Amino acid sequence: MTATLPPPERPEIDAIVEMIIYLYTESRRLTKGMASGFGLTGPQLTILKLLESFQDLSLSTLSERIRAQNSTVTGIVDRMEREGLVRRERSKADRRVVHIRLSEKGARLAREIQVEPMEIFRSALLSLSSADLRDLLRILTKLQRQVVARVGQGGQKKSDGDGT
């Protein structure tokens, strides 16, 4: 049985939760709209831009970065590979590891997509002072730790020990 949380005692908690949900939703909306303009899904665009930044990533690292299961990312990468946007290469150091890299077509498309939600957030953060940025990072890191402690790294709600 799932425990019911008591209502927040402070109105600022609701305001903060609403702001976090707004920022998340707006980021997803922008990504989806931008992606569809290029014939991509939101996750495909995210992978495209990650690979543009990091050149190559293993499937497990991609999964961690976009907070998705390996099987989900495998399906996304399969479609991107069929469309000629990425290619798989076995690691020379460890044959069990497969690196995902942009193809020339994928690299051209990634360069063509200039604006992304992360850039919008980055530019908005530039208006904050260094001290505010440090405070925000410190607070968000604490919040992230608390959320992970409650739901676990994979996004699944942690069991309370009684099988639920």
Question: Would you give an account of this structure?
Answer:
This is MarR family transcriptional regulator. Pfam families: MarR. InterPro entries: HTH_MarR-typ, Tscrpt_reg_MarR-type_CS, WH-like_DNA-bd_sf, WH_DNA-bd_sf. This protein has helices at residues 11-37, 42-54, 59-66, 70-82, 104-112, 117-125, 130-151, and strands at 56-58, 86-90, 98-102. The chain is mainly alpha-helical and 164 residues long. It has a domain at 38-113: Winged helix-like DNA-binding domain superfamily/Winged helix DNA-binding domain (Arc Repressor Mutant, subunit A, Orthogonal Bundle). The chain has seven helices and three strands; from the N terminus they run H-H-E-H-H-E-E-H-H-H. The chain is globular. It starts with 10 loop residues before the first helix and ends in a 13-residue tail after the last helix. Strands 1-3-2 form a three-stranded antiparallel sheet.
